[in-house]
């Protein structure tokens, strides 16, 4: 199954849930929707994906940070936790703790995200307006 098919299935499920009037508390991709080459998600990754939800006016929000402030290597705090959770929810299979520290693992994950989901040929690892927008609206949560 291709990534586009997975995203379409998730989006269809979200739209269906919204139209049926159900309360959507959290969304996580089905285990069968994960790429065949991805290792099993850790419990931290699963809880990160489950805590992200679509929020009007924000996009996907993982309950750490609602803003879009410039963020890069060396930063700390809730905005970094938000980035880490959104990337984990985007099927990142590498090592990435949701610890609020923008260190080497987070830099590697941001570059992966920029290359994989944004099509950047030379990802810079900086979470500026374009990367925030993509994380908020393209998350495969």
UniProtKB/TrEMBL annotation:
Keywords: Signal. Residues 76-135 form the Peptidoglycan binding-like domain. Pfam families: PG_binding_1. SUPFAM superfamilies: PGBD-like (SSF47090). Transmembrane segments: none annotated. InterPro entries: Peptidoglycan-bd-like (IPR002477), PGBD-like_sf (IPR036365), PGBDSf (IPR036366). This is Peptidoglycan-binding protein. It comes from Streptomyces musisoli.
């Amino acid at each position: 199954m291709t990534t586009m098919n997975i995203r379409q299935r998730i989006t269809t499920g979200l739209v269906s849930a919204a139209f049926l009037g159900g309360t959507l508390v959290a969304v996580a991709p089905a285990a069968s929707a994960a790429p065949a080459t991805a290792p099993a998600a850790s419990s931290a990754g699963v809880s990160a994906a489950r805590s992200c939800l679509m929020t009007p006016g924000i996009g996907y929000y993982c309950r750490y940070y609602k803003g879009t402030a410039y963020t890069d290597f060396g930063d700390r705090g809730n905005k970094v936790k938000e980035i880490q959770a959104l990337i984990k929810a985007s099927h990142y299979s590498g090592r990435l703790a949701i610890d609020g520290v923008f260190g080497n693992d987070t830099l590697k994950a941001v570059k992966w995200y920029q290359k994989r989901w944004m099509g950047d040929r030379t990802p810079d690892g900086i979470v500026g307006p374009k990367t925030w927008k993509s994380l908020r609206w393209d998350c495969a949560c």
